[in-house]
Sequence to fold (353 residues):
Amino acid sequence: MNNILIVKTSAIGDVTHTLPALNALRRQYPQARITWLVEEAAAALLVGHPALDRLLISRRKYWAGELRRGPRRALAAVREAWGFLHQLRDTRYDLLLDFQGLLKSGVLVALARAKRKVGFGRGMAHAEGSWIFLNERIPAVDMNIHALDRELLLLKAIGIAGPAVEFALPITTTQRQKVESLLTEAGVDRSRPLLAINPQATWPTKLWFPERFAELADRLASKGWAVVFTGSPADRQEIARIIAAMHTPAANLAGATNLLELAALYEMAAVVVSTDTGPMHIAAATGTPVVAIFGSTAPWRTGPWGEQHRVVRVDMACSPCLKKHCPTSRECMAGITVAMVEAAVQEKLRITN
Fold:
């Protein structure tokens, strides 16, 4: 096996879930040249990974946006996209693995040159017919199996079985040093245990309530925690409002790090509290205990992988609905109290009042 292509384009959590499959492939084929096709938003998570030889980065969303911004911008975007397609096709792969299983990945699978194009066949939910682009279709598996385990089952079906789940995030000393500097500049007391809180998410139904995050942070800060909030640049304003509602100091590092620097921050934390979102999976991949707040989604499918984590949710007939918008008033989130999340954090670190 000389050349292998992994197709997992997005999102951040899904790409994180595929890292154990990458490491399993590297163990099975130590001399192979492994390439990963990924979209721009999640690419930073893979830069410098020791099991990877090459990254192919699709800027699909950027190109689509540029097409609407006038002829000159559109022409430049078309040229860049054409160059990307040349890169995609410049190698004849012995094995292509479609871990994405969507129409957008299926089109790229069709364009790529590979002897074996492997993925799950008909029957996987939300697959959008992507299986038609494969020439080796693995029987569908139950979607209630965790996403990470489903990907390892795909490998197992073609004779590749890893002895253990390994993420091996490629965090560098430089990235850890940058995070230490950010914490110092933000006035974080490093003599106190570090609690990282990631309160935002892209789905409204995944959001807990800002005032409850503020109360949770206050309670834990009063018990000796140093509190740091994380998120994307777009989250910074909302996190600032959470901190403004607090009575104790907290640092707002939303948008201050790239993905691997964020991983370095979570690696330093004693516990990470998060909604169901990409950074939650990055935190779990570092091995730091995660307290995950779940409402509309299914933790057995997409929760933090590993026994050291704790999911906080309420059992309701309508949950998980797997919907982005709630037709009522998000009772599944309203039922999660500050005391419940605080108790889960204390349980993880055995903190007593």
Observations:
- The chain has a mean pLDDT of 95.
- The radius of gyration is 21 Å.
